[in-house]
Every structure is written in structure tokens, then in C-alpha cells.
Amino acid sequence: MTKHEIDCEKALQQIFQFIDHELGGDEREAMQRHLHTCKSCFSRAEFERRLKGKVGALRQEQDAPEVVRSRISRLLKTF
Amino acid sequence: MAISREAFGEKVLALVGSLHGVACRLTGNDTDAEDLVAESVARAWKALDSLESDAAFRAWIFRILHNTFVSERRRANARPQCDPIDGEDLDEAEPVFSIFEQMHQPFLLWFSNPEQEFLDRLLREDLERALATLPEHHRVVVILADLEEFNYREIADTLGVPLGTVRSRLARARGTLQKLLWEQAQARGLRGDAATAAAEGRAAGVPRAKSGKEA
DSSP 3-state assignment of B151? Predict the structure, then answer.
């Protein structure tokens, strides 16, 4: 194993950082190389990425109710 | 940092939807969420000197929102919190629950994919219920990372914890979320048809192979 290769254990440790785009250049490339060759870790990454997407889809349209927006607007005028 | 009242107001109004959305998920109801946002904005204005840069505004005001929520809840409860916010993160020996590990059947990949079918069958209500059931210190990191798409640095700044804590807490929060989803599915007998098929396949003598393509 060369310096920039990782095994399944390391890949699973970094799986959330990978799907969150929090791995730096070398680590990200090493992870991508591992996923190209390991079907199990690739499937795990896809599963975690899909679940993250489903959780993210819970985000409502980020327009606050008018009553809230009005209240905050009134509050801001008092500063 | 010097910032005009107008600039402060514009930034707040641009984020008020996100602030209210997070406040709803923290408090669990619209009325308290509205009060929490208003109180947080008022505190933010008073604490404007603590804003270090324009770029830090989002994490800064969400931190004030979170701190306000925690302090208001403590006052309402009138006794110390029992939620083991930091102690929980120290328990690294406890394995993180994974639906994938529960369901993955590598020898069945050529005709079935149980864990992906599990996701296909997940309803919005399932996710909402599980998210609402998460302990608060887990819920907030999932909300910030997955709904609000904060990066780890912003989450660390928002919660006032080190980056390493964000990594470990988020991993544990996702594990807890998956465990809740798994338990909900089990309670409804809905682990996924493919899981059943997998079990039936083994009983019927479907040959095991190192990879699906070899089967």
C-alpha cells in the first residue's frame, strides 16, 4: 500500500467527510481511487449520499411566514 | 465589526427563513420558533461587536440562535440540562449504527439491492419523525449539515465546539438517525422486500459469491 492508498477501514472512517466534501485534495483523491476499486465501499458511499439527500430535502422553502417576517422587520426598525 | 443598521437588517431578512426553519426544528412549534428568532435577532444586534467579519455573519447569528435556544430552555426547565452534549462524543468505542451494514447483501447485487430499496421506500414522514426524535445535540448538527448545508467549520463556529467534535458528533448523529429509521421500519414490518428476498434466497440455496457478477 503506497502512501496515498487507503483500505476499507480508513475509507469507512472518512465516508461522511467525503460525502460532505470535507476531505482535502490528497485524502479525497485516495478515497476516490478506493471507491473505484471497492464495490462495497462504493455502495456504502452511495447509500450515505442518498440518505443525506433525502434528509436535506426536508428543508422547507426558506421563506419565513409573513407574520414572522413582519415581526422581525418591525423589530429591526427599533434598533 | 462596524456594520450599519441597514446592512444588519438586510442580512437578517435574507436569513430569516433559514433562522425560522431551524428554530422550528429546535423548539418543535411555530410560536416558540417565532419568539426564538425575534429574541436572537435582538441579542445579535446588541452583540454586534462580537461579529468578526462579514463572511462570518451566518455562523455568528446561528450561534446566537442556538445559544438563545439553549439558555431559554434551561430557564424554562429551571434546572440543569441532563442532555450529555459533550460526554456523548467521548464514547468513541460505541459503534455507529448503520442501516447499510444491517441490509447490505453483496452476493445479491446482481438482482437486488436491499439498502437502496429501503431508501426508496422511506417516506418524508419517516424522516421527519426520526429527525424530531433525535436528541437535541444530534438534531442540531444534522440540521446544520444536511438541511442548511453548513460546512464543518461553520458548524463548529455555530456550536462553539472544535472541528473534531463536529466530525464525531455528526457521525454519531447520523448513526442515531439511521437507528431510529431502522426501528420505525421494523415496527411497521417494512425493512424492505429485498431483505426478505435475501433471506428467502439464502433459504432456497442461492449460491454465495464474492461479488454479484460472479454469481
Answer: coil
